[in-house]
Amino acid sequence: MPVEMRMWRIDGSDPKPLSEASLPTESELQEFLKRDPSLLGTALLVIGSEVVTPFGKRLDLLAIDADGNLHVLELKRDRTPREVVAQILDYGSWVSDLSREDVIEIAERYLGQRFEAAFVEVFGGTPPDELNGELQLTLVASTLDSSSERIVTYLRTFGVPINAVFFKYIEDDDRRYLARSWLAASDDRSTSALTKATSKRAPWNGHDWYVSFGGDRSWDDARAFNFISAGGGKFYTNTIRSLPEGARVWVNIPQTGYVGVGEVAGPPVRFSEAQVTVDGESVPLSGLSLSGAYTHRDEVLDDDAEWVVPITWKRTVPTGEAYWEKGLFANTNSACKLRQEFTLDRLSQHFQVAADWDEGK
Asked: CATH code at 343?
């Protein structure tokens, strides 16, 4: 049966029922959600309004969450249960096939700015490599008839990621409140059955890598003696040791910015075994006067030791000249594949290095 939403104010020991006020038109409700999609109970970035689909219909609102998953928000308006449910499923079948490039194109057309920058403003971090991995369909209404509720509930039993949210205006003397209720509990939401195996992960050119260089390591050391390292511990050593010879690396100092780009010149080795060239001679890195700390307690196992990767630098800058702007890629891993086109374009321009791997062409 339809969800009923009531509120009471407690005056002393007597609860006073609050009366419902006239809900704004669903067009006004759509504007509320555009301005503040957190009304739905989770952080969302609206990336499209009245999105024109290939079959001539207009999707009310399209949003994205911090995990890169898309949310189709469709207002019930005055349509019948069959019409509104069929419409949102139709939209879901189309949205589920959108590639990463499709999502970004829709977002930038609506937002009027780079998608990555808008994403950072809302979620505080860069977009994940995969966009549109899962999908959520949400019917937005002031009321929902029992037939619609039965259809939505039935579809959820088959894994269709659909839910309904209700909004009510409540009056309390000269104050008015907007109350929200979901048809199904949030922890009961279905896993997306509409998402398909489309190219939703940012393509990788096979050569560019991101490197995080921080902690007790010194960037001055790395620039002077042509290396990078990541610190001890399996989490850091596994990724830094995955860098292949010949890979191009872009180095970011967390909370500071990008400071250099270079090419991996050889296999990773433990700090205690690393050799570097000084004045034309090969010398142990551990025997040099270094500013950073590269030895660790109980580093008997390889996973516990500091690992050094030799680098041929293309261009580096001091920490004080680090480059950062909103939307650039950052990651907690010591090294990972750099797929984000926005970051690669910006870094290539800033460091005056060709975006194409084959810099000789």
From this structure: 3.10.590
